[in-house]
Fold each of these.
Amino acid sequence: MEDLGIFNHFYTLIIVSAGAALLGTVSGALGSYAVLRRQSLLGDAISHAALPGIAIAFLLTGSKTPLILVLGAAIAGWLGTLLIMSIVRLTRIKYDSVLAIVLSTFFGFGLVLHTLIQRTGNANQAGLDTFLFGQAATMLESDVLTIGILGGIALIVMLIFWKELKLLVFDEGFAASIGFPIRTLDILLTSLLVVAIVLGLQAVGAVLMSAMLVAPAVAARQWTDRLRLMVFLAACFGALAGVSGTIISSTASRIPTGPTIVLCATAVVGFSIVFAPNRGLVWDRIRHQRNRRNLKMETSRN
Amino acid sequence: METSQIEIQLIAIVTAVACALPGVFLVLRRMTLMSDAISHAILPGIVIAFFLTESLSSPLLILAAAGTGVLTVVFVELLQRTKLVKADAAIGLTFPALFSIGVILISRFAGNVHLDMDAVLLGELAYAPLNKLQAFGYDDLGPVSLYVMGMILVLNLVFILVFYKELKLVTFDASLAAALGFAPTVIHYGLMTLVSVTTVGAFDAVGSILVVALIAGPPVTAYLMTDRLSRMLMLSALIGSVNAVSGYWVAFLFDVSIAGSIATMTLLIFGFVFLVVPNRGLIAIARRHARQKWEFAQTMLVIHLFNHEGLPEAEAESAIDGLHEHLSWDPGFTNQVVRYALNNRCVSRKETQLILTAHGRTIAQKTLVQ
Amino acid sequence: MSYGTSNEWFPYYEQAFSAGTFSYRTGNELPDYEQAFSDNGVLGMQASEQKAIQVTDLTVAYQDKPVLWDIDLDVPPGVLLAIVGPNGAGKTTLVKAILGLVRPAAGNVLIYDKPYEAQRRIVGYVPQRGSVDWDFPTSVLDVVTMGCYGALGWIRRPGRRERELAMQALEKVGMEAYTTRQISQLSGGQQQRVFLARALVQDATVYLMDEPFQGVDATTERAIVTLLQELRADGKTVVVVHHDLQTVTDYFDWVMLLNIRRIASGPVDEAFTSDNLRETYGGRLGFMKTDKSDV
């Protein structure tokens, strides 16, 4: 009996680690584009805006099937993004303010719907906690499969349109001048981001999702000056954070998985910013001192 | 109305106004998301202070949490200063990390302390009146949070009134403010401290996510209505109050979360203002568009004729039959514009040609000179 | 950190969606311009001659605010044309309208008698250097290779042939030693030369360049001038948004003076007169040499 318990525990750990690794990979890779476009916080807005979508999907279908709820989340996240874009286009309100207002009010509306559902006795507070903090620890094989398939599709699409997306992010005007439809590409890239976010909601939840997009990408950027390598490294860092966070949180009781994953990702960022060659702070200091020494030597020689 | 209902609405109004006032400066300074960062990042400060004081409304807790908020701002700015991380990414990195620390602290020691995660994130306005102030031998001097938020509101008001000129200058021209010796950094951190204190005070009632709606919503709505800072402050306070009261009653009617309902009303009222406000509203834009459509087309026509007047190609350029080709307009539309311009006596017909009248020439000249 | 004045927060959306132009233009029906002009000489040139760029009665408005009024411009093949005018004159907008990046409210643009959409492959574009984030993780060679993306079309990746083309272009601008350099490590002038190389890779017949001389060092300025002359020698047409009035006569053979409307256009010695300049710049011409009036 004892052995079986350990085996079960181990099996669960592997499943959860695999799920977290997959999510880290997808959000790390796609987050790179968000960071490069200075849309790091769009992820935060989309993840919060997803709540009413989940609630409405549940109210309409009465089902708690993850796929249906994920679909609802994606649609709401998408609508939120669309609203953000139109308000920015039609008014003088700045992007950051629009993000803040859409993020908080969509979430508030989601909360209203949630209390409505609660009142009918169909759900409990746990559902909301899951949305807020994820439920990495309770991931099942089928969840991991869903994440693998949807995330895999998103990554493949990203690879297929690699050249076009790179051009869009780097030089939109030029892209348009040679005939690429930037609106369409923009929608494509945002949709990929929405996929990464609604998948990630399950692991780390709405509040911490933005870290899963931003942290691996920022860390990866410090190690390389090439987009290809940056996206690859960000995917690796995301996976690393996912696995290490899962393992650390399993070593002791009452350490929630999502926040631990985020802290692992943040640690990778900290390490990268300090120690990465060329760009890192230590490197910078060394170069600085070497320059000063050289300058001193030259002035003394003269 | 019961006393508790009045109390809840009072707390909601005071909180909304207290949040909206510093929010105006955040919105104008393009730092709105800093409030999102602060409201999440203060969690570890709240938790640690809660361990020490075991009360959610002790002054020490507010100070500790506010300190964490300012620390967040410092942290974000340090990250940015390395030039390795852009401003938005720096925010996106900092607050989830601090928030995660808070969450882990809570779950690790959840058994020892009574601090509900949902209370922090979502708040519960309905319970606010239950915690009464007890002093001087009275056991009901009104809800504690009303006093706390009231003091924060007064603090914000005093700060804004005293440093109004400086805030205005720092907001619209930070470098000029520095040159004039107004120490933009001091004003900046003063404002950030206010935002932190306000956020801590408000999270008790509305939670750390929806406080963003209170901070950003009213100023953004007011921004559509006015260009004057003083008016924007007053309108924000007013809109904040309307959001709060209407949100409360919607929540009461449908028996749903008050904070969520206030946030929803914030969006709806923003949407309503966006639709109907003069000048910048959607309806105003559409109507102006429709009105200017003919004016603008007429001006284009007049300028077109003016540009080619007296030149060798004038005959081809001003032939009525050929106009739509030159301007790439739909022939029907071109006819309508010509008729419109004829009616307004900007142009006149001379056989197959359209020629400018003196009036039309003046319009063209005026338009091109400005 | 100055949030108040900085424009660098989320610049993308402002750019991408500000182009809320309003347009009365009909679809793609193209009137026969050859016909319209064949009987009437167009100012300063022979009507029968083919034009590299032909802008007719172009009006562009952003939201409700017009930025270009009824612009006519004919650029014959093989000339170096400078577009000059004060800030806010609509120079960049004109270039963008020629490239089909903004929709005009009236008027038309033809490149060698066909609309831009049909002629994309023979048009090269050098955007303003400040329009992109030079901290983007990519190399010099990679940016220059982007010049091939139009010819490659969707999905196909650049290969060895494209990289060779890019190398040749880099040699032409004297940047072959920097191929693997990250683009943020370049000086402003070097960055500008990378952009020029990218346009060269497009192997276009008509080039549109937005402020290529802005903030570049003397070496780069000379390199660009040499390049422009080579392009002209090859029969290419080059339109350059330019802000330095002093060098117009030395660098260019045609000029367009623009301030919301076209003040003048034509060969430099005809159009670049002090009268026209005064009309373009209003009273703000104190720094200009006035000895141009004798031409």
Amino acid sequence: MVNVMDVREEEFINPGTRMCSGCAMALIYRIALKALGPKTIMTVPASCLTVLHGMQGFCTTKVSVLHTPFATTGASASGIVASLEEKGLADDICVVAFAGDGGTADIGIQALSGAVERGTNFIYACYDNEAYMNTGVQRSGSTPLGAFTATTPGGKIRAKKNMPKILEAHGIPYVGTANGSYPLDLYEKFQKAREIKGAKYIHILSACPPGWGYDPKDTIKIGKLANDTGFWPLYEIINGKFILSKDSKKNLDPSKRKPIEEYFNTQKRFNKISQKEIEVYRKYIDDLWNEIKNRIES
Amino acid sequence: MTDSKKDYQKILASVQKPVKGEAGKTGTWSNFKPIIDLKKCIPAKTGKAACFNCWLYCPEAVVTRTIPPEIDLEYCKGCGICAEECPVDAITMIEVRPE
């Protein structure tokens, strides 16, 4: 387990970005860059992360960033890796695609699937704030059931798309889930992914104060509740082997999981959630953890 | 026929410089400012490099990992995560309003 003093002290983001106050994604990006180091090339589609990098002429980060159209994140990463291989720099420089949940689960899934299937040597990181936050909170494939967005005013009626499972089905060497509220776990996962050859995928839950409807100071607390209620388990799948992360291990015991209502009550987007939907969640979480238990034991 | 050297220079003109405060002085965004009580702060009190939750959890990278930790109020957006995550409640958010 990484200690706080093991985390690289050097910062790769300059203060004074355009991110909202209390943005979990800014924290995730900051920690991820620390784990990846200066020899990194980022490719970023349209998302809140594009806004973080700033306007023409100036940049907030100290690593190279390629801004790419929405649907081409995976393809652009393949292109960068191909050119690095041509120049003989592929072993030295790490290529990372960093996209939002809309750019991953909806618009960019085709390019991502293609890049992963080609076995491109890169990391694909998805920060999942569960809607199109950059354009004004519209629903995405990754929005959970019952959540309010601008395009689902009564609460979403469809369930959240399980991206880590889709990527796992591609048979890639590394799939991981992380959470902005556990930066040390996140740091370790990015470091691990950097050392593995082949396509790597990390899915990170990222709390969003304006989109989820809560006070910015509660960002870390809400992310921790997502883990404590069992809604967002932290795990890794390395070459097909399932490893439950340390911070999620206590959730294996159903009595130690907090009731899911505690998570919903902290956020305004779940104001209209019905009792029936809460039952659906309870069953989902029980099934999810039974499945995890079976996978660990087998 | 195009002059490839000139074209290359055109592309170079779009190279972006890393700067601090790309969005301006973001410290003006909030009326709340974090103040560290050095009598309570773990690294300041014990003189040991430990804790640093404020540095770890800051989304804006304005806290330093030094003894004692320092906060750059010029760019701090006043979200209050550091005050919330401090294990000994050494950080308080103080309201600052213009007269």
Amino acid sequence: MSDIHEQIRQEVASNDVVLFMKGTPNAPMCGFSGQVVQILDYLGVPYKGVNVLADDEIRQGIKDFSNWPTIPQLYVKGEFVGGCDIIREMFQAGELGSHFTENGIPVRQSA
Amino acid sequence: MAMQAEEIERLIKAALPDAQIEIRDLAGDGDHYSATVISAAFKGKTRVQQHQIVYAALKEQMGGVLHALALQTSAPA
């Protein structure tokens, strides 16, 4: 496994919730990343934001790691959950909140 | 460099011959589309897997030439 993949694997293994995004949680630099930030903030889920714009190796490496061509990418307990569309769809269907609680991650709002 | 809706549809249809596809141009710039794809190939697959099937059909265009494709996938009811 390339060292960038190892670095990513470490990141998702050592943080319950990781959002690979463009920008930072306080300053998203892309509408899609911003939408997932809003959903996670609404649910009150603690997460680590990784700014792929700050590191081109991560920006490309994450796409190979998950076999997913776009950013943002949300990981829960090391598992790739989805990009913006899927996270929004799960949120609207009320599945995202239960996905977190099933993984032992506290959620503020029930959604 | 942008992508035409017909090109997206052709690539998806080539990979999923039974697919019912509806593509909407979100921004008129050939870069931001939404697509609804219904195919029996999605039956029993997670959303991530369904979208990965569509992305594979788009052969590397996704994320490069095609900046954003809002996907809505499902198996036939």
